[in-house]
Design a protein that fits this description.
The structure is a homodimer. The first copy, chain A, is 44% helix and 20% strand. By secondary structure, chain A is an alpha+beta fold. In chain A, the strands form two sheets. Chain A has a six-stranded antiparallel sheet with strand order 6-5-4-9-8-7, sandwiched between helices. A three-stranded antiparallel sheet of chain A has the order 1-3-2. In chain A, a hairpin with a 2-residue loop joins strand 4 and strand 5. Chains A and B meet through helix 2, helix 4, helix 5, helix 6 and strand 5 of A and helix 2, helix 4, helix 5, helix 6 and strand 5 of B. Chain A binds a DNA duplex through helix 4.
Chain lengths: 271, 271
Amino acid sequence: MHSPSSPDVKPLAIVPSPEHDAAANSVLGKVRLILEAFGPDDESLGLSEIVRRTGVAKASVHRLAQELLQWGLLERRGSEYWLGMRLFEIGQRVPRQRILREAARPFMEDLYQATGETIHLAVLDGLEVIYLEKVSGHGQVSRPSRVAGRMPLHCTATGKALLAFGPAALFGDVVATPLARVTPRTVTAPKLLAQEIQQARKAGYAVEREQTRVGYLSVAIPLTGATGTMVAALSVTAPTFRADVNKYVGLLSMVSRRITKSIMAADGGRT
Amino acid sequence: MHSPSSPDVKPLAIVPSPEHDAAANSVLGKVRLILEAFGPDDESLGLSEIVRRTGVAKASVHRLAQELLQWGLLERRGSEYWLGMRLFEIGQRVPRQRILREAARPFMEDLYQATGETIHLAVLDGLEVIYLEKVSGHGQVSRPSRVAGRMPLHCTATGKALLAFGPAALFGDVVATPLARVTPRTVTAPKLLAQEIQQARKAGYAVEREQTRVGYLSVAIPLTGATGTMVAALSVTAPTFRADVNKYVGLLSMVSRRITKSIMAADGGRT
DNA sequence: GGGCCCGTTCCGCTCAGCGAGACAGGGCCG
DNA sequence: CGGCCCTGTCTCGCTGAGCGGAACGGGCCC
């Protein structure tokens, strides 16, 4: 918003993207910019920092922040703004995660007890997986996954399960753009990926070895809803040296059937 | 849903509250009404249903819904609107829950493995507890608690822990309005409640016997942040017939110290 | 003191947002 | 079949909610 040149002036907004300005002349657009100014690891932001990141006029940010404060979407301590509890509350109402999560949760607990390894529940969102739930033990903070975090489809076991058993058109969309190399062993060639998908389709589950993180592998299985279409993926992630793929496959497939039943019982047939 | 009298005209909004109209003439106010039209158990709503619940003009709801759709706060299947995944995503960024949750999570797992009973993590929000996390096994769907759900302070173990070890002014605010009787054994007399709080303060933990749900008891312990002030409560809930309060107290107090350390290590000193 | 950046407030302009109303489609009933 | 009612969608002219440049007061550091 602030123009280039002029050496002393603050260096423009973080996002000078083209559609940025287009979004900014609607109230909702500004609110979006404000809320999304908080990155996944930001705890709190000062008003001026928000102004800098969003490019919205200070007076506007201030006014909207007051309104968001009143709603509870933002909170305030001193002169720092925090994302507010009400956001968490509303977020938990989202049915696509709530129903699946409530159904899968106890079974994920079982899987964790049986394996001692990290268990993930993921769904497709856009061209990425998004993790709905994660059950794990101590000392595994450095794993790149996180509840509500996103990962590419082509390098995760859950992603490959979604590619293999989810919407048919998905694969084409994914390989339309270059596949990111996450580790040295990440598959970036569409042909190879297609083979892996095919293999997963035959086996009934998907595996990923050190393609997301060196030293770890994951096994994932699809979950189907009442309509018979795939709605989510469930995975076990373990260090390669102690991983027992066959065991995981057995446990996952057993649990998968039970969760499907549980979903059908709890829910009318949506999800 | 349709009100009495006047057979043909629609009966105005469900909520004809005084501040309702005040909120409605701001864009954000309308958006709030729209998002909050989705109750905790609603899966999806049609446009007209939203209009009915919010009292906002149909054209406005339609326009705003389009914008929310584009943002991802709403999703759409057929002509039904659902709360969207992006809400879940943003909600998980809220630091007050994220930091605590990430720190407490593995320990809650330990507690569940050690007891086989339901484990809750709760914080104070307004004059209620709000559950940040819940770890439990199968077949306990009927428990009134739910992640991001709210419960009164005076009838829950976590609530009493917050009353005993949290802000000093809290007790006065809570007893300022009549205490709801949730079960026959719920304490509704302020004096009795004060005694229980005092007892909890002495013991270092809070107990609730069949005051939230007949046949169940809970034991809760406070969690303190880096500054030494109380920030959350952790509890075990079990059927009375097999509950072992002393065991729970021992486990909780051990875990409590570790979590506090973990919070201090992970976080600068906020929360 | 003087510069700097902070959060807050003011105020007149104007365009985003408004909502009554028209419209198209679909399901139900007589 | 036509009439009715309830959907979701779209148009269009009016207007006040929202806008943002600018000014203000306070805290911090040089």
